[in-house]
Amino acid sequence: MGNVQSESSSPIILAENLTKVYSSGPIQVTAVRGVSLAVDAGEFVAIVGPSGSGKSTLFYLLGGLTKATQGRVVIDGIDFATLSDGERTRLRRHRIGFVFQKFNLLPTLSAMGNIEIAYAVSGRKEPLDLKHLDRLCDLLSIQGRLKHRPSELSGGEQQRVAIARALIARPAIVLADEPTGNLDTQNSDAVLQMLLRSNRELGQTTLMITHNPEAASIASRILYMRDGEIVREEKGSRPDLALPASGVAWPAASAASIVV
Ligand code: ADP
């Protein structure tokens, strides 16, 4: 298929005819070929496919972490191609929360330091909302681990800290690349619950790469990749997945408080 369009006229994530070719010497690998997709605000989209099908490359393209060989990515109406490198970095920091399979926490900072620095570069004018921080840390069960450095934390704890880091500034978009790939079932569930909760309660748009069909099933829409193309799309099978009691809903920060 390769061409998946939603019905909205202004999707928050738009990819048009995206192609990425890696070249090393005479060898060229087309990792993503002609992918078009549109994600509406508030959707939870999972991208599923076997290893080597181009999921991570698509993730890097959509997050502005690598440049397309052809095609374009428009985030919240802004075309990455129109931005300087600095502007693209700011757009990423201000609008997107990233979660990676290998956590990617800064090793020299404590867990708290990692969360604080993400907030510091998020472009928010208002001071860190300590209630939001507390709630995130409670829901992720990391309150007792905040003073520790990543090397002193288990993989599951590191990923839960990475989720707090991604969500602390209430980004409009959360991009997660195999967020449960290195985790046991219990930690996977905690991470997926948190992504689902923030998607529903903060109205975030969530796009998660996974090779795990069970993880994908929590999404509202699942896109299947093969050989660099999106070949099939279906609805998630668990759209009414119950969440544990959530307490007070998170207030979403107003767009006006974000400086880009
Ligand atoms: P997935 O995330 O589905 O495993 P990737 O996007 O990582 O797929 O890879 C898609 C294809 O692109 C694979 O054939 C992979 O070997 C190749 N590839 C990925 N990154 C690079 C790179 N930096 N240089 C060359 N080839 C790459």
CATH topology of the domain at 42-66 and 83-223, what is it called?
Rossmann fold
Distance from N terminus to C terminus (CA atoms, Å) equals 35 Å
Bound molecules: adenosine-5'-diphosphate
Full CATH superfamily name of the domain at 42-66 and 83-223 = P-loop containing nucleotide triphosphate hydrolases
Reading off the top of the CATH hierarchy, the class of the domain at 42-66 and 83-223 is best stated as: Alpha Beta
Return the CATH architecture of the domain at 42-66 and 83-223.
Answer: 3-Layer(aba) Sandwich
User: How many distinct helices?
Assistant: 7
Number of strands: 11
Question: Could you please describe the fold and organization of this structure?
Answer:
- A 6-stranded mixed beta sheet has the order 7-8-9-4-10-11, with helices on both faces. The chain has a 5-stranded mixed beta sheet with strand order 1-3-2-5-6.
- 41% of the residues are buried.
- The longest helix has 17 residues, at 185-201.
- The chain has 7 helices and 11 strands.
- The chain starts with a strand and ends in a 25-residue tail after the last strand.
- It has a domain at 42-66 and 83-223: Rossmann fold, CATH 3.40.50.
- It has helices spanning 55-62, 85-95, 111-120, 130-139, 155-167, 185-201, 213-216; strands at residues 3-4, 13-24, 27-39, 44-48, 70-75, 78-79, 96-100, 173-177, 205-210, 221-226, 229-235.
- It is α/β, with parallel strands linked by helices.
- Strand 8, helix 6 and strand 9 (205-210) form a beta-alpha-beta unit.
- Helix content is 28%, strand content 27%.
- The chain is globular.
- Helix 3 runs parallel beside helix 5 and helix 5 runs parallel beside helix 6.
